[in-house]
Amino acid sequence: MSEPDVCPAKTAGAQAQPATARERAAPAAGGLSQGLVRLMALTCAVTVANLYYAQPLLHSIGTDLRVSQGSASLLVTFGQFGYAAGLLFIVPAGDIVRRRPLLTGMLAFCAVTLAGAAFAPNLPVLVATVALCCVTSVVVQMLVPYAATLASDNERSRVIGTLMGGLLIGILLSRTFAGIVAEAGGWRTVYGIAAIFMALTAIMLRRVLPDHGRQLEISYREQLRGVLAIARAEPVLRWRSLIAACGFGSFAAFWTTATFLLAGPQYSFSQLDIGLFALVGAAGAVTSLVGGRALDRWPNLRWKVTGGSLALLVGSYVLIGLGGAPLGAHVSLVLLIIGVLLMDACVQGTHIINQSVIYDLLPQARSRLTTVYVTTMFAGGALGSAAGAQAYEHWGWTGATLVAAAFPALGLVFWLASRHHATAA
Prior knowledge:
Blueprint: H1 7-16, H2 34-48, H3 58-65, H4 69-72, H5 74-89, H6 99-118, H7 123-136, H8 139-150, H9 156-185, H10 187-208, H11 220-233, H12 235-263, H13 271-277, H14 283-297, H15 302-322, H16 329-358, H17 366-417
Helix pairs in contact: 1-11, 2-8, 2-9, 2-10, 5-7, 5-17, 6-7, 6-10, 8-9, 8-17, 9-10, 9-13, 9-14, 9-16, 11-17, 12-16, 12-17, 14-16, 15-16, 15-17
């Protein structure tokens, strides 16, 4: 089965938008140089990393601030809720204001909040500054649809794949970076260096990002109404958003609790070891890049590949669960590594497919599509991190693994329910 014929959906979505007389023409396609694509990918990497620095640091932050593991995990949960809030209330502005001053201003504010996190005296202040940092880190989700708008039709999936590859590398290397830096200078140094990264990125992007005008001549309230209208009018968008929430919920449940397993008595990993462990998921970055190019050739396989990825994601937790079993340190670690490689590849592969599908629906309103899709996805991530942390605290690694596996199992239900929107290849 292929993805649905989007023509009827486009008609419905168009009816949900303001009058076309109030829309500006989209920036000309094909206006992306390789250098600009790489800079956008780098920006995605260093910005999205802000959401994940805390995960390998939870054990040391909890010890330093004298709070429990469950309380320390609130950093991840509130960070993801902050990101979801930014997606819902800030990302829609990407279509109705000039992007360059908006994006660079948000990056500058993000640098300030990271500096605040580096000097936070207690957990509530740290949670607040990290949440504000994550609100402004939605720059990533404004760059991706902007790049999709600038790219030509035959290179769009490749460009999305490149930016998503940068995003994934940022997610994975953020944990390794945090572990290495925290081992040498403590967890506060991590946030101090991250603040410098954001300041430098704001300056570079200010110099080279095209300064296009507003794409839609409408008010902010009308834009938010348009977001809700698109969510109602596009069933493909709704199903893909729910599938993404399940995938990211699983991802967040694992990485939030993995620190506790690795720092525990079975492995007794140091802060540096935990950071280096994050490198095992690097294969997912290759999947996102290769997958983006493959989708340009065989878009009719997207629905089938989505189901296969979700099924493999469920299966990966058999290996991950055995990674916490008393099978011997080496055997358990090998099984855990294999499971994580498979898990990361499946999550990111599904995410690339989802975005390739939804950005074909309404090219003139990709910020609205992104708002619905990624807000739903990160709400699932926040739920996954909270549920995973609670399951680990009550039932240990087995409970956390079962919770993480339940998310893609539910995603398979959503995938099957969306089948009637697909048409024959």
